[in-house]
Amino acid sequence: MADVSVGLSCNRDRREPAQKHNVGRDWVRQIILATYYLCSAAAMAPAQSTPAELPHQNNQVWPELDIYNKVGSHLDLTLVSQGRFSFDLPNPEIYVFGIDANIMVNKYLLITPSYYFYRFDQPAKTLGYGQNPVLAATVDVTKREFRIDDRNRFVAVLSGSDNFWVYGNRLRVERRVAGKRDFVFAWDELFYFSSTAAWQRNRVAVGFHKSFNERLAVEPYFLHQTDGHSRPGDLNTLGIILNVRLR
Question: What is the CATH number of domain 25-245?
Fold first, then answer.
C-alpha cells in the first residue's frame, strides 16, 4: 500500500497581522538553499529505480509551499503543493497538489473541505495516481502564550480499484516565543484505515514557525512516522513549509 497524502498541513493562522519589519532576506535565502541541497542530495541518492519490494523504513525530505488568499471575512483558500524526496527511492517519491477551503465558523471552530491530487511510484516501475477529497474540523483554545487544537478529518483515498477511507485525529500544541506570530509546536496524529480496519499509522512532529512579515513565513519541522502496513511505513522526515499570504 502506497503512502497517501494524509498529513498535509491544513493549518490556519488567525493571529493578528504582524508589524511591518525587515523580512530578513539572508535567513530566508539560507533556509531555501538548505532545503534545495537536502532535496538535491535525496534526488541524487544511488537508488534511481523502484525496487521490487518497497522498504519498510525510509528517510525523506518534504518541501511544501502553501499560498493563502483571503476571499471573505470567514473564508480563506489555500493552494498546497508538496514533494516528498527519498534518499533510497526514485524522486519525487510522492507529489501532492491540492486546495483547502478554510471556513471559520467562530473563534473556536474551523471547517476545512479539501481536495488533493497525488502521484506515487509503484514496485512495477509505473506511476500511480490518486485523489483525496477531505473534510476536517478543528477546535482550538488559546490561553496566554499557548494554543491547543484538536483536528478530526475524514480522507477518501481514490486510486483506481484500491479505494478506502482514512480517519485522522491530531492534537497540536503551540507556544509563542517572540512576538505574536512566532512559535514552537508539537503534534501527534493517529490514523484509522478502513482498508485494514486498524489504527495503523502514527505521526509525531516538532518544529517552529518563523514569520518575517504579514505575508511570508517559514515552518521547518521534524516528523517521525510509524506504520506497520504501508511501504515505506516507518519514516524519518525533515520538512519545511513556506507560507505565502496574498491578501
Answer: 2.40.160
